[in-house]
Amino acid sequence: MYRSYVMVCGGPNCALSVEKQGKLAEEFEIQIKMAGLRKEVQVMKGGCLGLCSSGPNVAIFPEGTIYSHVQTQDVAEIVSEHLLKGRRVSRLLYDENEATSTQRSLEETAFYQKQLRIALRNCGVIDPQNIDEYIARDGYAALEKVLTTMTPDQVIETVLASGLRGRGGAGFPTGLKWKFASGNRGKVQKYVCCNADEGDPGAFMDRSVLEGDPHSVIEAMAIAGYAIGADHGYVYVRAEYPIAVKHLQIALDQARSYGLLGENIFGSGFHFDLEIKLGAGAFVCGEETALMTSIEGKRGEPRPRPPFPAVKGLFQQPTILNNVETYANICPIILKGAEWFSSIGSEKSKGTKVFALGGKIKNTGLVEVPMGTTLRTIIEEIGGGIPNGKKFKAAQTGGPSGGCIPAEHIDTPIDYDNLASIGTMMGSGGLIVMDEDTCMVDIAKFFLEFTVDESCGKCTPCRVGTKRLLELLNKITEGRGTMEDLDRIEELASFIKENSLCGLGQTAPNPVLSTLRYFRDEYVEHIEHKHCPAGVCKALLTYSIDPVKCRGCTICAQNCPAGAIIGSAKNPHKIDVNKCIKCGSCLEKCRFGAIQRG
Amino acid sequence: MKKTSVPIYGTKEQTQALLDWLEENREMPGVALPALQKAQEIYGYVPREVQQIIADFLNKPLTEIYGVATFYSQFNLEPKGRNRISVCLGTACYIKGSNRIYQLLQEKLGVEDGGCTADGRFSLDACRCLGCCGMAPVMMVNDDVYGNLTGEELDAILAKYQ
Known about the structure:
- The structure holds two protein chains of two kinds.
- By secondary structure, chain A is α/β, with parallel strands linked by helices.
- In chain A, 39% of the residues lie in helices and 15% in strands.
- A five-stranded mixed β-sheet of chain A has the order 7-8-6-5-9.
- The longest helix of chain A has 18 residues.
- In chain B, 43% of the residues lie in helices and 11% in strands.
- Chain B has a four-stranded mixed β-sheet, covered by helices on one side.
- In chain B, a hairpin with a 2-residue loop joins β3 and β4.
- Chain B is elongated and about 50 Å long.
- Classes of the chains: A alpha/beta, B alpha+beta.
- Chains A and B meet through β10, β14 and α17 of A and α2, α4, α5 and β4 of B.
């Protein structure tokens, strides 16, 4: 045991590279050694603390003090002041308001107070590369409990009673999925799969769990294996997450050497082992049947259901597939009971949900809140609001399959059903905040470009339909749209939704339909007045110089890449609209606010 | 602007390394995808010749291997530069202006999407999400991540890589 632990956050936003986390940790080791504290203080490289905007972060336990924006040159001061003398270094303390100098520990900050960390319980708290630390936090106790005191059916009943629903997007009850695959235990080969192909742009919760707490997923998969009668599992991870793969591999090796994976686990006669399969960059592989086809080494194309994977999945055998965050909830449910879990959250959505908070918000990062928390709480209290005094316009959830939540619905309690009723979806948990400078037509176009690119091409409604839909949006953002195009968009969108083979196509029109539902006037403005209110759609913008404000400083002319600004020093300048490429660099450079964009 | 090809010919050692791996993993279920990943790790890209080696060894038609290689965005059928730049065009980055960063890089390097500079020093790609949404906009050069980009620092970053 050590007196104190120094946890250097290794989340993707803090460390920026493994190297930098290593350097910071190394500097702590050196300074601690020099201070003669080597036997009292341990340095660890942890997972994501969730406070991404103030990184690199360092947490000191047991007191839970967080230091932000820590550079190697700050380390000596933290060691000599905090660890040696017990005085916090106030200039480096994490402070969400950055105006007061109140000392805060992890639990005291508003960022954490509104949160309830179940799936992220160990992230940033333990060293993910050390199985002993996981075990010290009740790790593998759930597996032991299951194998020694519960029948497989009791496990399924517990998960069912907890009300846990899939965290990957669609929200299907996890216990039910397991139940469907539970027949013929021991008679047929079955598989347990984990979907860690987090392809939704703007979501990084699965990455953080795998990097910060890989054992929680491994343990839960073994429990799932016991429940349905499977002895083999696959974790399908994006190749873009090398650190997650590395931590998972280390965790697998350690679990095997402890006898927690492999033959006869806990002397119960239950065998289970896992393999990692690397994805290769195809968004559609997040769809369950496509993911399994990809594990089989083929083009990751989806196939029609039924048969459902619980009947015929991987290698034609009964298979269950759950998302990383879903698995991360399993062990606490087993240990604390279904009743405890179902007491958290809203009526039909139990437990918590992790969101990756990004976009135009002050505290970008990873947050876990009880289901039913309002968007306002997440954005204003946890997220710290919109930076630069701008106005909140909408939040996007569900990525390319989801929609937006406009300001009028900011008080909606977030759960699966409420989100569906306002035309979006939970998705995997990316929550992108947009302010008044975001053009909703452009955002719809952005997501559609994504789905056009990622459509696998197997079925026509998705392959051709999304492309035609994108062309209609392009027409509008380029000022060639007509009001009839809006009707055409709605008609085509509902056709694509109804006729596509898999979830990708069925949800692809959602970002368009959702923005059209809440921001129709913005579409109309693009069409009727050839004007982009947010000033984003390039083809509709014109730049001009206000001759009253212009001092003739020539800065804009010097910076114009197209040579489109004419005028002599000390005299008002003019923009030649025929030469202007609308790059906006004059607007950025002008110190007198003389450039107008309209 | 065009996608410049830089010749990187496979060596005997590279081919042997691939064949050894195939021999070792012959029995792995669904081996085609990991085989292509291994090949890309060895050669840096998977041109037709390399796909043919895999197809011959696994006794599968080339079309099947080609089908897998072209399905997944991870595989490069063209060689890449010594330094690989990927600009994140994921949602969080896009909203914070990564599109402009991508444009600037295209202009600075004189290549388009997916292209490689004539001297083989840089290749430029867009990518979907690096999972660093807290630091948006973000780009990666090889294994280094650069966040909170404004565009002004690009020259200094590029100068670090030869």
